[in-house]
Here is the input.
Amino acid sequence: MLRFVSLAREMPVKRAPEDRAQDFHEIYREFAALKAAQQASRCSQCGVPYCQTHCPLHNNIPDWLRLTAEGRIREAWERAQETSTFPEICGRICPQDRLCEGNCVIEQAGHGTVTIGAIEKYITDTAWEEGWVLPVMPQIERSESVGIIGAGPAGLACANMLRRAGVQVTVYDRHDRAGGLLTYGIPSFKLEKHVVQRRVAQLSAAGVEFMLDTNIGVDVTFEAIRGRHDAVVIATGVYRSRDLDIDDSPASGVIRAIDYLTAANRIDFGDEVPDFADGKLDARGKRVVVVGGGDTAMDCVRTAIRQGAQSVKCLYRRDRDNMPGSRREVENAEEEGVEFVWLSAPTGFCGHVPGIARDGDNASFCNAHTGAGGGDNPVLTAIRVRPMRLGAPDISGRQMPEPTEGADYHEPAEMVIKALGFEAEELPRLWGANGLEVTLWGTVRASHETHRTSLPGVYAVGDIVRGASLVVWAIRDGQEAAAAILADLSATQTVVAQ
Here is the structure.
């Protein structure tokens, strides 16, 4: 160990931008065994492992780095999966530059962080290839039943832990495939779908029942689910898109990120998607503008490149240093041809109605307050953009963007994708869940330790509690909720026995 003083940091080789922009395969090549061992040997084995502290799952990172450096890959895998339900997924999509790697001690000392995420991916991919990942088979079956609403990362993590303990688990989801945003939100160039589906298949083989295409409040009531199970977990995530702070009239060409990414992922599965077939959700040949600076925006711009867009620009109202998305993702996007327009915000859409004359890219109408307007079926031709500057810091410490008056300009576009984040749906109203308390933001109010809600026997985990957050936090919530449920079920059994 301690080879960081003589061995430079090295990531797995990335496929060339011109090659990877032609398909949806993952962009990083695999570490070879020797390279993984060398990079793992750079770990300083420090007395205070900040990488572990800043990992939401508190993974035993120094331990499995040491085992990898010594060539003990199976032991490294066993240690990695002790704390993480889906390490092969976290190794691919966690923003390590903001979590474990960003807090690596040798990074702070100027030697370059250990490539933790790439090594985790190598360990877990090797485990699957060698058959070390065994089915989740409980030693003892229990009679208690838990219903989980939502088959995303939080719900699947909870199902995994409960099933290991022998609890009977049923997972309900409104989509036709399990996985939630892992399946339909995150593009395959970051997370190939077989990685998710084999975990779902493993859970199904272990006895987890999946009730797909099931919309709570429509196909089955929330109270009916509560009546079927000893406990219920709400793990729906947040899917209501935030909108632009302008009157967004329905100009053809202005779409939501969730619709766009879902369609792209369905096409990757080979599904028929009418809105893609007719061009509405296909970026091919179009000038595309994505509004937003988070990871969802990065997924959109990189997907548009792969669909063959004529050009792709990303508008963000702050600068590069203040954007919320992964720096690594920005770098990958720029390599693939995305142009970032920092300190810029949209103020309106421009368009024309077919049959009305227009001059080049200047729309027949362009209203900064009422959207495209001007007809029943306007076609987008441009987005009006206002340059911004950074002012005083807000309560979070980030500088607030302020508009530069009188400097608006038109950015030609046939497709604008709104990637401004997500909010919670109104679950109490949609489900008729009387007594289910929510916060001012519409998220379900739940204990951050036990994940209990205001309703007896009902728990909530993941983004529906936190708001839009990281997959790794959802996994942690699911694991914690499973532990709390098992404790509560055991306590109930003790009381009944007495």
Notes: The mean pLDDT is 91. The chain has 19 helices and 17 strands. The CA atoms of residues 339 and 396 lie 28 Å apart.
